[in-house]
Design goal:
The structure holds two protein chains of two kinds. By secondary structure, chain A is of the alpha+beta class. Chain A has three helices and five strands. In chain A, 24% of the residues lie in helices and 11% in strands. In chain A, helix 2 runs antiparallel to helix 3. Classes of the chains: A alpha+beta, B mainly beta. Chains A and B meet through strand 2, helix 1, helix 3 and strand 3 of A and strand 10, strand 11 and strand 19 of B.
């Protein structure tokens, strides 16, 4: 198993049937979009910002409970924003030579192998239970 | 006519005369002609063996055996096999290693000129899938499309997304998928909110279909979500399970995406790795 450093996703590069699995980072979710807007790392068009502001104004006038769906969330869910330095492991073309790896579309921030991921699952060994001795 | 002259020799003088009068095959190979085998493969550990029989000018049948180890990226992997001059009586491509199923290793056999990467094809003699049980014979059989046949049934375990992120699975380059089922578990955090997962199928940009759970998935629980053709639109809160139907046939090109979009998803919610089944073919390159 490996972990994508761009999105935090964890996956197996090779499936149980032996086929290769090509990970692609998901677009930003609504909580991630909110965080990015708040941090200033995501800039939207003035028109879309006006839509967000209008939705926020609607939410401000409502009696919200913990479970009331927010108009702002609905607005943000309507857009798809790729995350910065997303990783896309789909092949970008043929390998330049027989020994070279196949280039992928985007490396992103790279991946890290998770411990124990190459071999069989790590199974904790359990000491055998003592025999049950029945006394007459 | 001179005594003891082989009447067959008169026939064989001149390739054109020979081909017209004594032609054991419709495919004649000159010295400049080669056989090129191209494989588009998705299965691991596959090795192909190419065998052929050629009736040479000297009226001897020459057999050849060559090997090709294709890549697993569904991209073209080729081998060019030098041949002597003569008639191509027949041949086959067989699986010498690995166990590809139908839908995983598509092979094209052509007559080409040139032995480098710039070889020019002049005649396609075979195209079809090979498996451990089914060789591809040439010449003589009709050419098949890579998108024909039963396809390979593949169960896939996708990516466990990061915390607060949605699920995303993408049809890989070089593949065509039919989505048969999709499931994922949403573990909701303690934050109070009514999450409503939806499964969206898009072409990489535009959503083509959305199937939304029929109830609210509340906090601090693990909700199982299932989507499949023919599934009921059903939400059983007591069992924390949601089912939703997909269209009867969901065919997806390379680059199409299957993803969740969850109303009121919270930053600490966690989707489990999706588990889904597809029928896969090699797409036209």
């Amino acid at each position: 198993m490996v972990k994508c450093l761009s999105c935090g996703g964890i996956y197996a590069p090779t499936q149980a049937d032996g086929a290769e699995y090509y990970h692609v980072c998901p677009p930003l979710s609504v909580p991630e979009l909110k965080a990015a807007l708040k941090a200033g790392s995501l800039v939207v068009t003035p028109a879309f910002q006006a839509t967000i502001d209008a939705a926020a104004a609607v939410d401000a006038k409502r009696a919200l409970t913990d479970t009331t769906p927010l108009a702002v969330d609905t607005v943000l869910a309507s857009i798809t924003v790729a995350r910065h330095l997303e990783r896309n492991e789909n092949p970008a073309g043929p390998a330049p030579s027989l020994l070279a790896p196949t280039p992928i579309i985007a490396e992103g921030k790279g991946i890290v192998k998770l411990l124990g991921s190459d071999g069989p699952p790590i199974v904790a060994t359990v000491a055998p239970a003592p025999p049950i001795v029945r006394t007459p | 006519m001179a005594a003891n002259r082989d009447p067959l020799q008169d026939t064989l003088d001149g390739a054109e005369q020979a081909a017209a009068i004594l032609s054991p095959s419709a495919t004649y190979l000159e010295l400049d002609d080669e056989i090129r085998v191209t494989a588009y493969n998705a299965a691991a550990g596959v090795q192909l063996e190419i065998r052929s029989r050629i009736l040479g000018i000297g009226r001897k049948v020459q057999v050849s055996r060559d090997f090709l180890t294709p890549s697993t990226a569904r991209a073209a992997s080729s081998a060019i096999i030098g041949t002597d001059e003569g008639w191509l009586i027949g041949g086959e491509v067989i699986v010498a290693g690995g166990t590809p199923t139908v839908g995983q290793c598509f092979v094209v056999v052509e007559i080409v000129r040139g032995i480098t990467g710039s070889s020019q094809p002049y005649q396609a003699v075979a195209a079809g899938y090979v498996t451990a049980k089914l060789p591809l014979a040439f010449p003589g059989l009709p050419l098949s499309l890579s998108t024909e046949g039963a396809g390979a049934i593949r169960p896939i375990v996708g990516t466990t997304p990061g915390v607060g992120a949605e699920v995303l699975e993408t049809v890989p380059t070089g593949a065509r998928w039919q989505l048969l089922s999709f499931s994922t578990t949403l573990v909701t955090s303690a934050a109070a909110a009514n999450r409503v997962p939806a499964l969206i199928i898009d072409d990489g940009a535009n959503a083509m279909y959305a199937g939304q759970a029929q109830g609210n998935e509340t906090a601090s629980l693990a909700w199982s979500n299932y989507w499949a053709p023919g599934a009921p639109a059903l939400f059983v809160a007591a069992s924390f399970v949601s089912w939703f139907p997909l269209p009867a046939i969901v065919m997806l090109n390379a680059g199409s995406r299957i993803r969740t979009s969850t109303t009121a998803i919270q930053g600490a919610d966690q989707y489990a790795a999706p588990k889904y089944t597809v029928r896969e073919w090699i797409e036209g390159q």
